[in-house]
Amino acid sequence: MSGKTLLKLDNVTVKFGGLTAVSDVCLEIQERDLAAIIGPNGAGKTTLFNTITGIYPPTLGKVTFNGFDLKNIKSSDIAELGIARTFQNIRLFKNSTVLDNIRLAKHTRIRYGFLSSILRDKEFLEEEKRIKEDSLKLLKLFNMEDKSEMLAKNLPYGEQRKLEMARALATEPKLLLLDEPAAGMNPTETKELTELIHFIRDHFNIAIVLIEHDMRLVMEIAEKIFVLDYGNLIAKGSAKEIQNDKRVIEAYLGSEIEGI
Amino acid sequence: MDYYLQILLLVGIFITLSLSLNLINGFCGQFSLGHAGFWGVGAYSSAIFTVFHPLGLPAPINMLVALVIGFLSSAMCGIVIGVPCLRLRGDYLAIATLGFGEILRIIIMNTELVGGPRGFINIPHWANIFWVYAIATLVVLFMLRLKKSAYGRAIIAIREDEIAAENMGVNLFYYKLFSFTVGAGLAGIAGALFAHTQQFLHPSNFTFTWSVVILVMVIFGGMGSISGSIIGAIFLTIIPEVLRFAGGTIAEWRMTIFPILLIVLMLARPEGVFGTREFLEKNGKQI
Q: Rounded to a whole number, what is the distance in Å from the CA of B118 to chain A's nearest CA?
């Protein structure tokens, strides 16, 4: 089911001083892909996300999204181009309401100017009304519309993760990056999450890439898996191919008897 | 009577000042300690206009122009200081703005044209209590509307989480500079009002101590709360005067009682009177 190439990494290397966090990684994500990046702790997975979203520019190599070279493009502009993400340690706007968290994410889609917002003219009122309706609709998809006036910090943990996903989707992305969405969830919640991710892909028609340690979740939903180890991409392929890849098994379990 | 009028005037001016600082510190979360500098620039530049080059028009129109000049000159200083400083974070930003605030005051002190350390005299009495409260009302309205718009949401998001805000499409530098510049400009308006109600300006009116006083008003009422800044400005301007008249020991110890009151409040309610909420607003619900 390969569509148009959406995201392309060409020989991306990220160095922090003498430490190479990501080394010479090439990968491609097509439209509507459901891909996963896995690897042991410290393999460079989150760094890769940070590079894609413009937080750390690549030391070497090139990131292309939807035909745009992302070199020297600010994170905020990358969001406008259509990459949205969630964070490993939840980063909600804690003291804002659930609704305001979503509304903020519509920021790049807002057309009214500063003067309109102070004068509250027709353009402002109409657009704000539309944004509120859209946001509530989005919350409804996540079964959270009755919590729209709650402060984000008062939500239970699982719902905070859900809100972060909803917020990312509110930016109207073409590519959604999920950084350990199942972290801290129990098996029932993880199962719900699996369904939710499938639902998001089909309902919004977007590509999703996730970083995840929960192998059951990864094997169940990812159509493409990339394995990182010490910053190197050591394998890519379907779940079955990855499970039988010798280097992947070595990275996770250590190599077989080495001449004891 | 004059005494009470003077206190009322100061309350109005401090409402504008604390709201302007709240935009920078409370809403955007950028810790600025140079606010008195912007206040001073607005006061002096508007007074230079009305003393040396007033237009041949009725006083109210001249006063309006003076307010605009106060806003623009302070906002310009805000941009000049904001561009290099807003790359810094937290404590470093506080120290840098503190330094720049003092530089502005020292430049004023050494300008012979405005009287230098002798003070600036003969400023026309063109503003009064009505001007002060009309402007304060407009600033309150401005802040309320800003808070409930995409601009306000972006600015508040920066305070809550810079990285998340940026990844949701908020241009950090633009919105930080926006709130810094507008905050400085509003302080300049307060300066213009101050100059034309007091008729006398002195560089010692704009020292670092006053930056702290304004900051205390903001923190007292609640960082990010418009109602909080109003309450903070009223309370912190009036209480020292009330204690002065409490008589006997209390009046003597008022400068000790006052800080103790603040310490008690900070222990009991570290988020300030209102937190980030508004008067009559529950849990962030819309008013």
A: 41
Identify the CATH number of the domain in which residue A9 sits.
3.40.50.300
Task: Specify the pLDDT at position B171.
Answer: 95
B232-269: per-residue pLDDT in tens? Answer: 999 999 988 888 888 788 888 887 887 888 888 889 98
User: How do residues A206-233 score in pLDDT, each as one tens digit?
Assistant: 999 999 998 889 999 999 999 999 999 9
Q: Does A37 reside within a domain?
A: yes
Residues in B closer than 8 angstroms to A92, CB to CB, are 160-161, 164
Q: Which of B142, B154, B160 sits opposite A107 (nearest CB)?
A: B154
Residue A88 located in a structural domain: no
Work out the number of other CB atoms within 10 angstroms of the CB of residue B204: 12
Cβ–Cβ of B157/A96 closer than 8 Å?
A: yes
The dihedral region occupied by A66, where left means phi > 0, alpha psi between -120 and 50, and beta the remainder, is: left
A95 and B284 within 8 Å at the Cβ level: the answer is yes
Of A138, A170, A202, the one marking the end of a domain is: A170
Find all residues with CB under 8 Å of B268, minimum gap 6, and list them.
none
In chain A, the residue whose alpha carbon lies closest to the alpha carbon of B164 is: A91
Q: Is B83 inside a domain boundary?
A: yes
**Residue A46 at interface with chain B, using a CB cutoff of 8 Å:** no
Task: Give residue B23's pLDDT.
Answer: 97
Instruction: Please give the Cα distance from B244 to B237 (Å, whole number).
Output: 12
CB contact under 8 A, A92 and B154: no
The total number of structural domains in chain B stands at 1
Decide if A90 is inside a domain: no
Which of A94, A98, A104, A110 to mutate against chain B (most B CBs within 10 Å)?
Answer: A104
Q: Residue A153 sits in which domain range?
A: 97-170
CB pair distance less than 8 Å for B285 and A76:
no
Residues A66 and A190 in one domain: yes
Which one of A112, A135, A170 terminates a domain? A170
